[in-house]
Task: inverse folding
């Protein structure tokens, strides 16, 4: 069911983005009285799932969900309709329009993507606000995973600053971004009442950007082990353990925090008798039970969101709009910096690239509108950014040739545009196959 929800979100998100992107080309083409022969969601080689014709334009849905297109008369594009280009130019054709009009038509799609991304971010801030956990709320420090441990962090540390910037919001994603994108080289933590400066090894740029560590949680808030619920069918269900009990020891060894208990019970193993110390309404007691065949007892702790107070910033429409633009520009800036890291060899392209599987993994297994729109905003900005790359067959390639025409006053020949488009299309297909091939290999290596 979770996979189906992910697929539905992916299809809906891409459909919205493709339709609006192509509308960005369609509308200015119509304004400049340029004939649009086709407007398609998805590609339709050999046949389409649905089509209808209104006026001079055929509208339809293709069967190959790799994007969409508008076919504009008198333009060399992915349709490769070279026969039309052999005929004398007509006033309604793209090639007959002034360069500035053609430039606006070609920039229409990415313009829509950027505006849409900014607008969706703004609406998220307006509807849901901005929630975060203040760093000051995390009174017990952090619980680290193996990567953060290798970086020098320890359980119980309080993060103070990253590269000299004070940490106000508790988020391991902020540390990851600072290292991978901004080349952060040091952080300061408070440990046992003293501030300790930790150097960040440059190798963690590639470690944290690798696909195998995608989504890895570097650290979480450290929490005391208050009982939230008991899993059905687990040993704790038959024991005298109740919600809000605090687990304080395991086999006589104090366990102040959940991570301490978890690490110790893992070492004990399956089908073992254990003694658990509880504190209930100020009274301490001990209970005995056996771990199951997986070495677990089935007691869920109270999550950090219930222990610590999240802060929510509400925005009016006048505040949300510029906030959305700022968030979008910040995301695009990070993408440019990531490209820079890739070209410098600090981030491996094979670790960062991905196909539809990677895109689908951005969506959660449950349908949450806030998450759906956030991922859609991100994809809209990525789509706009990627389409601006100066590759023939992409919008950026057409824009590059149009800018050359505007500056030089000379228009590239139709034959040159044909060959350039073929080369660009082959390159794009190659990248798509490579990216999706990486997804397949990753799936087999799981």
Result:
């Amino acid at each position: 069911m979770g996979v189906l929800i992910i697929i539905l979100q992916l299809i809906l998100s891409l459909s919205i983005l493709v339709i609006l992107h192509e509308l960005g080309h369609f509308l200015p083409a119509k304004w400049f009285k340029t004939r649009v022969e086709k407007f398609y969601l998805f590609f339709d080689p050999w046949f389409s799932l649905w089509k209808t014709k209104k006026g001079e334009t055929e509208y339809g849905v293709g069967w190959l969900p790799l994007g969409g297109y508008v076919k504009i008369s008198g333009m060399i594009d992915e349709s490769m309709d070279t026969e039309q280009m052999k005929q004398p130019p007509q006033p309604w054709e793209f090639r007959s329009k002034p360069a500035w009009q053609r430039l606006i038509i070609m920039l229409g799609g990415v313009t829509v993507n950027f505006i849409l991304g900014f607008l969706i971010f703004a609406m998220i801030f307006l509807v849901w606000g901005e929630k975060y956990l203040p760093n000051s709320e995390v009174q017990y420090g952090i619980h680290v995973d193996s990567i953060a441990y290798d970086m020098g962090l320890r359980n119980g540390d309080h993060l103070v600053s990253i590269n000299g910037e004070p940490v106000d919001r508790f988020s391991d994603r902020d540390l990851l971004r600072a290292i991978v994108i901004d080349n952060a080289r040091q952080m300061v933590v408070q440990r046992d009442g003293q501030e300790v400066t930790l150097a960040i090894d440059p190798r963690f740029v590639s470690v944290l950007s690798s696909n195998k560590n995608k989504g890895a949680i570097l650290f979480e808030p450290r929490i005391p082990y208050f009982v939230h619920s008991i899993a059905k069918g687990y040993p704790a269900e038959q024991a005298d353990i109740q919600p809000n009990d605090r687990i304080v020891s395991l086999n006589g060894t104090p366990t102040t925090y959940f991570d301490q208990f978890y690490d110790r019970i893992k070492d004990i193993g399956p089908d073992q008798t254990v003694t658990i110390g509880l504190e209930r309404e100020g009274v301490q007691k001990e209970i005995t039970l056996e771990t199951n065949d997986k070495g677990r007892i089935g007691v869920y702790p109270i999550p950090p969101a219930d222990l610590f107070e999240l802060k929510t910033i509400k925005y009016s429409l006048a505040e949300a709009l510029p906030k959305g633009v700022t968030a979008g520009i910040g995301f695009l800036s990070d993408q440019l910096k990531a490209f820079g890291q890739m070209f410098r060899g600090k981030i491996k392209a094979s670790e960062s690239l991905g196909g539809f599987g990677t895109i689908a993994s951005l969506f959660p297994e449950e349908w949450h509108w806030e998450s759906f729109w956030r991922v859609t905003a991100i994809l809209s900005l990525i789509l706009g950014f990627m389409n601006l790359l100066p590759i023939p067959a992409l919008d950026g390639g057409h824009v590059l040739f149009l800018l050359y025409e505007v500056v030089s006053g000379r228009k590239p020949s139709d034959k040159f545009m044909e060959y350039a488009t073929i080369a660009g299309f082959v390159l794009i297909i190659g990248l798509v196959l490579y990216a999706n091939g990486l997804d397949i290999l990753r799936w087999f290596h799981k």
Summary: Residues 362 and 375 are 7 Å apart (CA to CA). Residues 1-84+99-127+315-387 form one domain. The mean pLDDT is 91.
